[in-house]
Structures are given as C-alpha cells and as structure tokens.
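Hi support team,

I'm opening this ticket because the web form for multi-chain structure prediction keeps timing out on my end. I have pasted the exact lines I submitted so you can reproduce it. The total is 853 residues across two entries, so I didn't expect it to be a heavy job. Is there a limit I'm missing, or should I split the entries? Thanks in advance, R.K.
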Amino acid sequence: MLRYTVNRVLLMIPTLLGVAVLVFFLLRIVPGDVVEIKLRGDGGNVSQETIEMERKRLGLDKPFVSQFGDWMIGMAKLDLGKSMWTERPVVEEIAVRLELSLQVALMATLIAVLLAVPMGTMAALFRDTWIDYVVRIVTIGGLSIPSFWFGMLIMLTLLAFFNWLPPITFTPIYVDPIANLTQLIWPAMAVGYRYCAVVARMIRSSLLEVLNEDYIRTARAKGVYEKLVISRHALRNALLPAITVIGLEFTFLIGGLVVTEQVFNLNGIGQLFVQSISRNDFTLIQGMVMLIAAFYVFVNLLIDLLYAVFDPRIRYDT
Amino acid sequence: MTTTRRTALKGLAGAFALGAGGVHWDVAQAQPAAVKRGGTLNFAISAEAPHYDPHASDTYATLHLAAPFYSTLLRFNLAKFPAVEGDLVQSWTVAPDLMTYTFKLLPDVKFHSGDTLTSADVKATYDRLRNPPQGVVSTRKATFSDIGTIETPDPLTVVFKMKAVNAAMLEHFASPWNTIYAAKDLATDPASPRTKINGTGPFTFVEHVKGSHVAGKKNDNYFKKGLPYLDGWKGIFTLQAAAMLNAVQGGQVLGEFRGISPAERDRLVQTMGDKIRIEESSWTLNLLVCFNVDKKPFDDVRVRKALLLAIDRWGGSTGLSRISTLRSVGGVVRPGSPFATPEAELVKLPGFSKNIAASRAEAKKLLADAGHPNLKFTLWNRNLAMPYTPAGIFLVDQWRQIGVEVEHKQSDTGAYLATMNAGNHDVAIDFSNLFMDDTSLGLAKYLSVSRAPENRSRSKDEQLDKLFDDHMRERDPEKRKALIRAFEKRLFEQAYQQPLLWWHRIVPTHKVLMGWQMSPSHNLGAQLEGVWLNA
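Hello R.K., no limit was hit. The queue was backed up. Here is the completed structure from your submission:
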C-alpha cells in the first residue's frame, strides 16, 4: 500500500506539470491583457506609453518561455507569484476564499451523504414501493433543478415569508459559529440537494445490482441476518461507485460553485475564478487551476485508497 | 471651522474672479436640525477595485472604496453641480490670464497618521499625478500636463503656474481622483497609496477583506468639526445585481450608489413600498457607435453616415429607457448640461433627425452610392448585460431596416478592448465614462488617434484637433460654446463615431439613509461625510 501510495504521489508531478504547461500557454492565446482592463476598462484616457510601462512592470513584456520559467521556479519554491490585478500574493488571494469554499463543500458533502445513503438504500430495498417512488421523485427533482435556481428560491422564500436574509459577509466558524452557520447552511443545502440526488441514485442502482449477486444469495442461504447481509455485504460493495462520485463532486464544489456563490453573494473560489478570467489575471488563474488540479489528483488518490478499505479484494501491494 | 466656496465655471466668469468669494461655511448651520449621529452604514459596491490609489484608477469602485478616507483640494458642490467648492482649501485665486492658481490651505488638517497637512503634501501629490515616478501609474498625467511648476511659498499656500491655459483647470482640481497623499509616504515609497491608506478624510481605514467588504470608522480628528455623522461604514461587494437587490430589499445594505436599471428599480419599489427612496438623474456616461475608419468600407464617409442616419434615437430612447439604463438623446455633451446642444439644433445634425423615414431613405441612397446596398459587418460589443446587450440588439435591428446585415459579437472586457485597440473591429459599441460635463474631458475621446489612443474609430482629423485645442484655450464662454458646436458638427458629418444614447442614473437608498446627495456622476459624492442614519 505504501509503495503504491508513493508511486501515485510521484505520478502527480508529471500530471501537474502537464496542467501547468497547458494552462500557461492556453492563457497566452486569449486576446487582451490585464493592464488594458485595469487602466482602460472604465474608459481611462491612458497613453500607450503608460500601458507599456505597466506591462513591463508586471513582466508581461518578457518572452513566454521566460515568463513560464519564472513561474515554474516560483512554483518549485511554493511561491505562486502575485495577482496581476491586485498585486497581492496569489496564495493570499486564494486563502481568504478557500476557507469559505472548503466549508461549503464539506457541509454540502455532509448533507448529501447523510441523506443519500439512507435514501438510496431504502429505495433499493423497497424497490417499486411508495418509498422508492418518493425517493425517485425527490432525486429526479434534485438532478433537474440547477443548484443556483434552488438557491434563488431559498433566498426569495426567506425574503418573502420571513423578510430575512442570511448574513451577507463571511464570519469564520471559529469566530462566531452561529453567524457562520446561519450564512453557509443555505448554500450548502442548495448545493447539497443536487449532490444528494446524484449519490442517492448511484447507491440505489448499485445496491440493486449487488443484491442480485451470488454472494448475497449465498449469505442469505447461510442464514445470515438480513441486516448484516445488507450492511456488511451489500452496502459495502454498493458504496464503491458512490465513493468515486462523492469524491469528484466534492472537488468540483471547491471551484465550481460560481453561480451559487453569486446568488448567495459568497466570497468563494468560484467567483474569484470567473473574475480573474474576465480580468485576464494570468497568475491568479494559473494559481487556481493548479490548486484545483492538485485537489483533483489528491482526491482521486484518496478514492483509490478508500477502495481498498471498502473492498477486501483490492490489495495494491500485490 | 470655516472655509470658502465659489462657483467656478458656470460659464467661465467665475474663473476670472480674484480672491475667494467668501461664502462662510459652517457645519452647525449646514446640518439639518434633526440630524442623528452614530451608527454604521452598510452599502453595496458592485465592483471591487484592484487597489486603493485613485490616481491610477478610472473606476468608481476605487472611489466608493477609497474616497471616504481622503480629501481633495476642491470638490464639486453636488447641490449646485457643476459648481466647485473648497475641500482642503479655505480660499483660492485664479489669475485673470488663467495662468496662475493660488490655493490657501486650511490650517491644522491632520493625516490619519497624525502628521499635519502642508503645502508640501499637495505639491508631492500633484507632482505624482502629472509626472509619476518609475513604477507608479497616473491616469491623469495628460490632464495635468498643462501645469508648469508648483510652488509652496509657505506651509499653507500652493501656487500652480501653468504652461498653457486650460479653461477647465478648476474643475480638474475638483476631480475626486486627485486625493491628497502625505509627502512623507510618497518619499518613502511612491507606490504606497496602492496598498496603504493615509488620508485626511472623514473616515479612517479599518479593514478590507478581499472579495467581501471594506470598512471605515469615524475620524475623530477630521478637520471639519462636527463631521462625519456616522460612526463607521461598511462597503459590501455585491458583484451580481440579483444579490445586490436582495441585500437592499432585505435591509442588509441601505443603498447602492452607482445605479440600477429601471426593472431593478421597479422591483424594489414594488416590494419595499415607502421604505425605499429612488433618486434619478441623467448620467455622465454614454455609449458610442464607433466605425473603424481603417477598415473598408468604413473608410467611406457615406457608409458611416448612412449607418448613423438609420438609427432612430428618439424612438430608441423611449423603448430602451424602459428596459435599460440608456435614456437621453444627446450630442457630445451630456444633455441638460450647460454646453449641451439644444434639441432644436441637435435634430439638424446627421443621425438625430426625428423624421426617421426620410433619414433611412437617405441612408439607403448613400449606401447604394457607395456601392454597398447589401452591407454585412460585425458589431463588436462588451458582454455586459446592462446596457450593452440591449444597445447592441437595438442597433442590429435599426440597421436591418435599411437592409444591412449585422453579426452581433459580445465578448469579455479584455477581448473586447484588445479587439478594438488592435483595430480588428468593423464597428463597435464603445463607451465614454466622465465625472463632469466639461468638454476638456468629453471631447478628448474624439481627437486623432495619435493624440487619443482611446479613439476606437482610429480617425485622424486635424480640423477636429484644432477645434479642440482652440476651445481648450478659449476663455469666453460663448465663443467656447461655438467651438464645441463646430467640433460636434464636424465630428458627426464625418461620422467617425457618435453617442448612441446617454445613460440614466437610478440610485436606490433606504429612507433611513439621509444626507447622501445625488449627482450626474457616480464618481462624485463618495466621501460620506454628510451621511447619517435616521434610525
């Protein structure tokens, strides 16, 4: 297991390097640059000389290869550089938003898993009964309704019926847990509903498949208690594909909640991503792409390792 | 506390007046009888500025964030806009030849750091504005290029000696972007105002949580005794209109000071009833139709003129004003402002006739004469919903009515600017963002591209350049007005570019918010010193 893990970690390096090359050079193909937007985006009467000086100051006048080299050297020192828009360290720009995005992702995952596992299991065990129908209606609703729209419904409902809205600025959970949860529970619910629907349907179909397997029939024939058959033999195996979905959904939530963040006015990574793209803030985009790529690679590794925990047949050392 | 104020250029007469007119200004007199002190104002800012330095910025986002921390020499008196009044100065004189401006500063003005403001700080600030050192950006370098020297005969006197007459110089001294910095800070690091705030304004800096909010608290040493009324304020970044509207409706913010659309206004009025106050004004912003004269067939004045003639601005104004922030029909100067062309004269200019059927018939003839009866081209536009998208759709429809086929391409600001700056566009919707009506700003965009890189038509016209220069040096208001008319006539006859419609500003505030003043520019009135909460 250790050897496998080390190998996988080492494989992350060329993967991330490939991502770095792709994101760096693709960004340079995009027309426009941050200096134009910063100095002329609001109609500024700025001379070309000033534009060129600012480009030089930000290092945008250097050849691409040289810029890439500088970035790679910085990365090796764990320095992602400075945002070309704010000129603050990229790490600082990301860190202030990552806390919120991570918390929403974790809360949404928690909501999704806590609801999806019992819902999916019940739907499979009581297939084609009213319980199954209810779960199917709820989950199809979750898949059909975009999270941001559900978020808007939540906000408008709170406003129309209670004349109340959650706090508009972020308070860290360690500063004021109540204020923090009061703000973040709503987006977590909006996102968690869709997330829950995906996972519940996956568990239902997977469990239905597993329940028809020979080893389940054997267990039942041996007289194993039904609860044990379900929890120890069936569900454990049925969860394997669900784990993959949960992992990938979680990673997506880190940077992919753009519209939901806008609806709830959340200062998260998704909004920062869109802003930095619209401003051509290359260093910040690069930093965020690398962060999200690293998350994906890491979570994938974690999923693979979890497979071994849930499925005794999987042994990476052999 | 006393200071003086005077009108500077309601006409140019004020600019010749010597000595400070001497209107006594007293906070106790100026404030309403029932003013309440204290409280924290939460308001929405719908964009986040990249830094804190107004010298290097043209976006209102910088001012809505930084203006409460700073002071300027002069400022616009919003109740009598475009009159100017003193902010840091108690009096000023302008030489009859407009070549010398002398400012007497208020005594005992303190920076937030505790240092006393002197004329050296003003000199250092204006030196930075007109001649920024290496690594510092001043987007107002050209504006102050007419300043020859800045002298500081004593700690409270600053004398600006001009190299050439700039008839609008006093307005430029009142620009909200010319925030005064401490000479000591600039000597240590000329770029420091980008990241550090040390002003003399009514509020001191508390925090800026990136992407979330910026906050200020009352400056107890503010030089205008009795001000500000608020204990503090928090500007909350609400980048999406829907989130901002919800926040206003839910009372999380008490206003948004840039402007909203008519539909957003209607929603707030409908849902909030008498709790919301709506103030409206014409706006110092316009959208322009801009032809790239370097590209065929737009190098042909007949084609350009035909396309302008096809636009029914008067009808468009009625329709677009219901769904967007576009409203007023006007020439190169904001409609309703002192130098604006009256409607009776405007309708005689190409593109402004009210007889749209006749105009379109003429347009078709011009296109046929030019050999382009079935013209096709791409209209480049910014992908901002308000008001760029409706403006683009409107133009496509207008040109379709004379048989022209247009592809409407909208892109992000970066790609949009890059396309226009590289001259890759056929026709574009450009914009003009001003903070005042004076034509020294407003007309500059139409100068030859060698002088004005922001001229996206890429036109070169010596006649226009000369008319502009003459009007800049002209001291007689009537003669200046005549030069502006001649400039406008020449510009529209050559049809390089032309304002489509001027924007209309709609600002929502809760009725508990008092003392905030509406103006035609969202860049003005951001200091918040006179704002108070009636709660």
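A quick check on our side: Chain B touches chain A through 56 residues (CB under 8 Å). Let us know if the file doesn't open in your viewer.
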